[in-house]
Design a protein that fits this description.
The chain has about 290 residues and is of the alpha/beta class. It is built from twelve helices and eight strands. It has an eight-stranded parallel beta barrel with strand order 1-2-3-4-5-6-7-8, surrounded by four helices.
Length: about 290
């Protein structure tokens, strides 16, 4: 249903933390012009934990309205409360999103049965395509492949973003789920390999600053052209490193500011990129000819 380079879009903010609606619309157009295959809004990179519910829903609506059907919009609507996740998912459906991305509940660390029932309840409550999002380094809870296979039997659970570098884990999910569910990489450094083993794309941080290159890498990787994919991927490796020099989305928001696309705004407890990483990121952007 969704494939290729799916940008994990930042949420632009002014220096005082107020949301920058003009900047958000500018980013949507930037991605349409540069070949991005889908936009994932208000996920981890979109600072969903510090957005108020009204802001969260408005960001989804603004992205959908600006996209005007020119590319799919996937809305981050996960929460560690099943009722809250249902509320956000229903709001995304009403706003016109094409699908929702639902993170594994964080902090409360449910059992595998609890995870199954959580995602099942949301899927049954809201008739919109839903993509699971497993990121155990952030949630302290791992959605195991066997549980993913159970969830794949639910018709509107259509994919999983697996944010690990474990290629064997990706293969296991594909073997267990077959064509019932699409696999997406949530780690830029592993995205190429995920697609070469049968994944359908990547939900990418790097695509924020190098959308055309990430799109081209995905295109050839999905065609099974390892040599062409490796050539682009090798070129992007310095960006993969620099964009995670501090916790995401700190570096990518600073990079977009340097590119003149957004204001330098981020909400506490996140802070602006430390000065010691500025030159590392500038060099990576120059190498990709994003900055002069």
């Amino acid at each position: 249903m969704f494939h290729g380079s799916m940008v994990a879009l930042v949420t632009p903010m002014h220096p005082d933390g107020a949301l920058d609606w003009e900047g958000l619309r500018r980013l949507v157009d930037f991605h349409i012009e540069n070949g991005t295959d889908a936009i994932v809004t208000v996920g981890t990179t979109g600072e969903s934990p510090t957005l108020e519910v009204k802001e969260h829903i408005r960001v989804i609506r603004e992205v959908v309205d600006q996209a005007q059907g020119r590319l799919p919009v996937i809305a981050g609507t996960g929460a560690n409360s099943t009722r809250e996740a249902e509320e956000l998912t229903r709001a995304a459906l009403e706003a016109g999103a094409d699908a929702c991305l639902l993170v594994v509940p964080y902090y409360n660390r449910p059992t595998q049965e609890g995870l199954y029932l959580h995602f099942k309840a949301i899927a049954e409550a809201v008739p919109i395509p839903q993509i699971l999002y497993n990121v155990p380094t952030r949630t302290a809870c791992d959605l195991l492949p066997e549980t993913v296979a159970r969830l794949a039997d639910i018709s509107n659970i259509v994919g999983i973003k697996e944010a690990t570098e474990d290629i064997a884990r990706g293969r296991q999910i594909l073997e267990l789920c077959g064509d019932k569910l699409d696999l997406y990489s949530g780690e830029d450094s592993a995205a190429m390999e995920y697609m070469l083993i049968g994944g359908r794309g990547t939900i990418s941080v790097t695509a924020n600053v190098a959308p055309k290159a990430v799109h081209e890498m995905c295109t050839v990787a999905l065609q099974g052209n390892r040599k062409a994919a490796e050539a682009i991927n090798t070129r992007l490796c310095p960006l993969y490193t620099a964009l995670f020099s501090e916790v995401n989305p700190i570096p990518v928001k600073w990079a977009l500011y340097e590119m003149g696309l957004i204001a330098q705004g981020i909400r506490l407890p996140l802070t602006v990129l430390s000065e010691r990483y500025h030159e590392l990121l500038r060099q990576a952007l120059r190498q990709e000819q994003i900055l002069q």
